[in-house]
Amino acid sequence: MAEVELRRISKMYERQQVVNEVSAIIAPGEFFVLVGPSGCGKSTTLRMIAGLEEISAGELLIGGKRVNEVPPSGRNISMVFQNYALYPHLTVKDNILFGLQVRKVSKQDQVKRLEHAAEMLGIAALLNRKPKELSGGQRQRVALGRAIVSQHPICLMDEPLSNLDAKLRGHMRTEIRQLQQELGITMIYVTHDQVEAMTMGDRMMVLRDGEVQQVGRPLDVYNHPANLFVAEFTGAPPMNTTQAVWRSNGAQSGVELSDDPSRRFLPLALGFGPQAGIKDGTPVVLGLRPEALQPLEPGAVADESRSLLVSVQGVEILGSETIVEFKLGDKLWKAKWNGQWPCRRGDLVRVGFALEHVSLFDSQSGKNLAITAGREKGEILRCVQ
């Protein structure tokens, strides 16, 4: 297994910069996910790692060796594409073995590797079929089989599940993750689906407009988003946000909700305030995850500084959970509750939350005000020192 290191790699197309100084260290045997919206540069970054795109600036190291000018065939990697890239005139068996035949691997070794991959992927009965006779999931397994038999220590995947239906995507997510763990290979996986990133990755890198927003373990990224973009990109439904103003009179500090007609004041615990560089009167954005907003029992004594009386605007009962929509000022917020709640539009409901679940962001930069610059950028800086 080999470590992959990206040292401020960038990509320019004429005068347009599509990837800007992306840095990361990907450990051997790690499942590392590049995630972000369409056009953020994640596939371009993957193609630079593969050698399919020239690196405009920066360095790429594989196993400690600089490989910027090394062709794809010399990088000891395999790749699974979004469209699977199967030869339509070849059988499943020949598609899987094509790369080995080009490399002139012995026929005995080819048979051994084929049998191992076919058994692992459950495609032994499909070896004599052509790609047109296969379903989407079966084609995906064939593409994976081709990567497995190559026995390269690094496998790159570029949105391999985007052409599958939702149920099959969920099944293939589990299969790919188990396969990676069984083989112990380093997997670098590109997706626009934050659910895939959260459920599959050991670590994830969130990209936006070609720039790194945050690198970390999925739960760390989810619970401690570095900025407002990451907060609203991760989670389903995403984080609720509203405009506010920081108020501090010495004895009590908190936020005044700008979007609330009553200008409600919410006192906040330590972790915010002067120690986070927030001055009185600073415009901020307050964020709460939908699952942090929980219904309070009728008649229960409610702390108004830690609860909201809201009018239900819409309800989605999903079987195991219920999504309740309500307005806070002019913003539509969502709460996620376990179970089935027969709320109706117009019902008044009081929802409570814990102050430790509140996030505050700078209204101009979007930076999370509870995370210092060193902590936010720490992982990124360490890998380019």
UniProtKB/TrEMBL annotation:
The keyword Cell membrane applies. One of its GO terms (biological process) is carbohydrate transport. InterPro entries: AAA+_ATPase, ABC_transporter-like_ATP-bd, ABC_transporter-like_CS, ABC_transpr_MalK-like, ABC_transpr_MalK/UgpC-like, Mo/tungstate-bd_C_term_dom, NA-bd_OB-fold, P-loop_NTPase. Keywords: ATP-binding, Cell membrane, Membrane, Nucleotide-binding, Translocase, Transport. Signal peptide: none annotated. GO terms for cellular component: ATP-binding cassette (ABC) transporter complex, substrate-binding subunit-containing. Residues 4-234 form the ABC transporter domain. GO terms for molecular function: ABC-type transporter activity; ATP binding; ATP hydrolysis activity. CDD domains: ABC_MalK_N (cd03301). SMART domains: AAA. This is Glycerol-3-phosphate ABC transporter ATP-binding protein. PROSITE patterns: ABC_TRANSPORTER_1, ABC_TRANSPORTER_2. PANTHER family: MALTODEXTRIN IMPORT ATP-BINDING PROTEIN MSMX (PTHR43875), TREHALOSE IMPORT ATP-BINDING PROTEIN SUGC (PTHR43875:SF15). The lineage of its organism: Bacteria, Bacillati, Bacillota, Bacilli, Bacillales. It comes from Brevibacillus parabrevis. Transmembrane segments: none annotated. It holds the Pfam family TOBE_2.
